[in-house]
Design a protein that fits this description.
Blueprint lengths: L14 H6 L6 H9 L33 E5 L18 E6 L5 E6 L5 E5 L3 E3 L15 H8 L9 E5 L7 E9 L3 E11 L5 E2 L5 E2 L2 H10 L37 E9 L4 E7 L3 E8 L6 H13 L8 E5 L5 E6 L6 H6 L1 H4 L3 H20 L12 E3 L5 E3 L28 H6 L4 H16 L11 H9 L14 H10 L10 H9 L8 H4 L25
Antiparallel strand pairs: 1-2, 1-5, 2-3, 3-4, 6-7, 7-8, 8-9, 9-10, 11-12, 12-13, 13-15, 14-15, 16-17
Helix pairs in contact: 8-10, 8-13, 10-12
The structure holds adenosine monophosphate.
Adenosine monophosphate binds next to strand 11, strand 13 and strand 15.
């Protein structure tokens, strides 16, 4: 849903990924531009951030700016630091520097304040991205999930870029039918050669807005007239504030540890607040778990990896022991605990597929960045509102110095999740992560059962070496196709295992309705009316009209 200005017109679907990765020239130049004589923030625990000279009330126009660009706020945002600016949905701002993909330097056109704002909270004025109903970077599966939220009535809708047609869009509408209950219908919005759009050839429109307005007045053959735009979830924040994008060592006294959440590989984990306002999760690193230098090196890599299926690393406090790792807070905790507790136990098959898809998608991103996780498991996936799943602790296993975490002798080494070549020869690769993903799938579809139940680590190593693989569970519903996917993840030869790209597409296109036996007989065809094509809903079929 990010809307950075520099490429707003191009509207590539994965723009956020391209913009965000590690190429930030640094905040220093930009801060110096506006902070002029004032010292840049340095991670000095003795000095509070409030000491940084306030500049946003003394705007100075940047001479480099050649043309005026106005953005409009799509969400509310409350300032977090001295260098950023608060705004409300609908506020207009003039961009004076957009060279940082994440933080734009703007002048607020009502308050006159100058400072940074998160680029993914705003969109160019009058652009399609500024419309409440337009959802960028949302897949069909995610659209289903958002629209099916209980509070949304029939006719709630959104428009998103098409996954199949680079110039087209899809209209997703929540519908209800006696036989199916609530479900989502997806319509293709096709572009016309000379500009304009249509769903049905007999009704063409110059703009997407006109199309939406027309179908909001009359269904014209859609399942339902468009009623209300789907509520947009808050965009992801990647940093605590603009000053912390590159300087993310923060004073420890700005963090308040409020509640212990659990104990992980590295030490205690707490729910806390930064500056008494922003919710965060704080991992405290047990002394001796890893060297500070190695950790900071790894954390610097993690900080640059930004994907909506990876838990954001906000900041660290590494000046004293124990080191704090300050992360995005995920309200429902680890996937493993979630699956075993009341709420997780009630997840339906579709929810499980959605989690499988999200984890594969986060791992696909790591695959493209050639980063190996090394400890992918349900305990290292976190769950937030609406069953959003994100992977955490990627890369950290590499720097653990603890003997207990050593492949050969450590009692805490995750033998049951680790590929044989990684256990025996230490050959970790993205393909050993694929093996672990297969184990995670088994955890998921058995609602958090320990893998290889009843077997000890050593036995698992020996049996797996001889070709033994976990059997298809009899206690839980698991389609043969998904069990086959698990077996392919556990292929002895790493090169024969699927890629995460494949796994993402597999679970994204997985049609739950054609899988669940009791529903199968109910959904065979879509009735032909007003130009709808009659089609059987099959796997991978996403849009029709
Ligand atoms: P870990 O060190 O990742 O194994 O974390 C231990 C426990 O702390 C997990 O099982 C979660 O319940 C919780 N936890 C870790 N990170 C977070 C987070 N970012 N948000 C919420 N809970 C977390």
């Amino acid at each position: 849903m990010g809307n950075c200005l520099c490429c707003a017109q191009k509207r590539p679907r994965h723009r956020q990924q391209q913009t965000f990765i590690g190429l930030n020239p640094g905040l220093e130049g930009k801060l110096n531009n506006i902070l002029e004589q004032n010292p840049r923030y340095t991670p000095d625990p003795q000095r509070s951030h409030a000491d940084i000279i306030r500049t946003k009330h003394t705007p100075t126009r940047n001479n480099q700016i050649s043309k005026t660009r106005i953005v409009v706020a799509v969400y509310d945002y409350k300032e977090r630091d001295v260098s950023d600016v608060s705004f409300k949905k609908g506020d207009r701002m003039e961009v004076i520097d957009d060279s940082d993909g994440d933080w734009l330097n703007v002048i607020h056109l009502t308050t006159g304040e100058q400072g940074f704002i998160p680029g993914n909270f705003v969109a160019p004025e009058l652009s399609v991205e500024s419309e409440d109903w337009f959802f960028e970077n949302v897949s069909r599966k995610e659209a289903d999930k958002l629209l099916l939220a209980e509070e949304n009535a029939r006719g709630t809708f959104l428009v998103r870029p098409s996954e199949h047609n680079p110039h087209g869009y899809s209209l997703s509408v929540k519908d209800w039918e006696e036989m199916r209950g609530y479900h989502v219908k997806h319509y293709k919005i096709k572009p016309l050669d000379n500009g304009g759009f249509y769903i049905s050839t007999n009704k063409t429109f110059l703009t997407l807005s006109e199309l939406v307005q027309a179908y909001s007045r009359n269904a014209f053959g859609l399942c339902h007239v468009l009623s209300k735009p789907c509520p947009k979830p808050q965009p992801q924040m990647w940093d605590l504030g603009p000053a912390f994008r590159d300087d993310w060592e923060i004073p420890r006294d700005e963090i308040k540890l409020i509640k212990r959440l659990g104990r992980g590989n590295f030490g205690e984990v707490y729910y806390g607040k930064w500056r008494d306002s922003i919710e965060v999760a704080v991992k405290t690193l047990r002394e001796g778990t890893m060297s500070t230098a190695a950790f900071l090196q790894e954390a610097a890599i993690m900080k640059k990896f930004r994907h909506k299926r990876l838990v954001a690393l906000y900041a660290v406090c590494s000046k004293e022991e124990p080191i704090y790792i300050v992360q995005e807070y995920m309200s429902k905790g680890s996937l493993l605990d979630f699956l075993r507790k009341d709420e997780g136990k009630t997840l339906d098959f579709e929810d499980l597929i959605y989690v499988a898809f999200q984890v594969a998608s986060g791992m696909e991103y790591l695959e493209t960045k050639q980063l190996i996780h090394r400890d992918l498991a349900a305990r290292n996936v976190l769950i937030g509102e609406n069953n959003i799943a994100k992977i955490c602790d990627f890369g950290l296993a590499r720097v653990i110095e603890d003997n207990e975490y050593c492949p050969k002798q450590g009692s805490r080494f995750p033998v049951k999740w680790t590929a044989p070549e990684a256990i025996v020869y230490g050959r970790f690769s993205i393909k050993s992560d694929v093996w672990s993903y297969g184990i995670l799938l088994m955890e998921l579809f058995t609602f958090g059962q320990v893998p290889y139940p009843g077997m000890h680590g050593r036995e698992v190593i020996e049996q797996v070496e001889k070709g033994y693989r976990m059997p298809k569970p009899t206690s839980h519903y698991l389609p043969d196709d998904i069990y086959k996917i698990m077996l392919s993840c556990w292929d002895n030869k790493p090169e024969n295992r699927p890629t995460f790209e494949f796994l993402t597409h597999y679970f994204e296109g997985f049609n739950v309705t054609s899988e669940i036996p009791y529903r199968r007989s109910l959904i065979k065809t879509i009735p032909r009316k007003l130009g709808y094509e009659t089609k059987t809903i099959q796997k991978h079929e996403t849009e029709y009209f």
